## 1
Amino acid sequence: MAIEGEELAKACVKAAEEIQAENIRVSDMRGISNLTDYMIVCSGSSMPHLRAIIRDVAGIVEKETGAKPANSEGKVDSRWVVLDYIDVMVHVMDEEMREFYGLEELWADAKELEWSPVNSSKGNGGVRKSNFIH
């Protein structure tokens, strides 16, 4: 069964959080852009951290949902990689590139979704889940 939209975005946020990506922000792009439904932007603190975020987001999301990026743009050496899941785009950037390109400001019309990590051992076997606050 294919996963899409909000559930896929939640899986991406959860994976980014688990590898300690920094400053994770989620934008609801529906009605703003026809490129994607959700845009996730996060940062890494070093080249190894950026590599780990990219590897783990792709790996954890595939393991837990079966979804693979339809495309991946950029290289870690460029300090900006996009994992494109069609309904969700995950931008992994170092902080300098993030400040320079200002994606959050560029897409300021999009609603930013707050999310809260949920850590519960009741009813889900201790699985961590991220929930968006609407």
## 2
Amino acid sequence: MRALGTCLLLGVAAAATGCGERALVAPDRFSGDAIPHSLTGMPGDPEAGRATFVARDGGHCVLCHVVAGLDVPFQGNVGPALSDVGARLTPGQIRLRIVDASRLNPDTVMPAYYRVHGLNQVSRGLEGKPVLSSGQVEDLVAYLAALDG
């Protein structure tokens, strides 16, 4: 039985894995519960990350998470509060959770924002495209890592 994140983990040709496509994150990028290095090779922009965090057409993270002092209406409480996430998790741990939280918790309701395989109910126009770009992931990492309570 293939685990949900196996194709993401392997990141090798489809013929070898049966996954049907190449993973966006190569297997050597993972280390325990983190992706230690930037997906782009550059640090993200925390202000752009904040914009993605609240944007309805971006991550829309506020739908499920709350950040104290963030001036946006209707912050959610489905996921954990993130006001001090930068004090609790490393940037690499934050990155992995944005890329594909199901690698850590297969039962999570958090979407995989940087995965394109093994997904359900994807609109035809969006098949093969991650929800966020690698740059947006890095921007979110920069924003969230700065939230230290």
## 3
Amino acid sequence: MASFFSKLFGLSGGAAKEAEALPGKTETYADCLIKAAPKREASQYRLGGIIEKQIDGQTRIRSFIRADLFSSEQDATDAAFRKARQIIDQHGPSLFADDAPMRQV
């Protein structure tokens, strides 16, 4: 009986499990490769993604995670693509101007 209530209220340890990254889909936008990377958290998905760009033969990576949670993986993936396009549009060339191989945005 206690097991039933633990699972019902998320006390079974599964909810405390660390967020698990899911394999995402990709899209090309403004010479950048966008990879949607929603993270599963309990029964929801956190918005996250990666923006990659080839500069002088080296891959520069900018990752992002946001507080937004979605009930479906598809909704989180769609939002990740929208957010990545917004980041690219807002930052423009300065997104990769620091020559850091990898960082959060």
## 4
Amino acid sequence: MARKPAEQAVSREDILLAAADVFRAQGYHGAKMADIASEVDLTAGSLYHHFPAGKQQILREVLNNGLDMVTEHVRKIVEDPDLSPPEKLKKAIYAHVTALTENPSVAAALVFETRNILNDQEGRDAYLKRRDIFENLYQQVIQDGIDSGVFKPVDVDIFTKTLLGAHNWIGVWYRPEGRLSGADIAATIADIFLQALLQR
């Protein structure tokens, strides 16, 4: 089948999702532009029309867009004045985990491929800034719960990193055909971390 020219209808999001699938299957270094292009029925040359800087640019956008997606979900919850800290934490974890299980290749990229932008200062700085903003949302909720007396006085930084580490690893072990749905896993993880924090 002939590949589509760049101007035909292949969205940027389609390309990034396809790239995440290829990165998950082959790893960043093993993946070729032609592999990504083939997934969306484009020529490699057409793919460069969308991403002139090539595979590194695609990886940056996969990581940044994935992080932006979950950040927006969590931010809306954290900024809701009608929710208590426990409600915010439970809903934030649920939103975060379900987003990861709905996009397992992006979730895997956020674990395994981040190191491949660390030598790219522009890419690294943009990604780390996003990561810090996201992490701070969780820290804010946990600190608010401690200040209001509903959460135990834990080390907020360590607890947040532990929580996010557990979330991130979902991209490694989750399988859509597995025993539990993404929603089931999200509800279980939210309950585990909430129970660890609540004052008795």
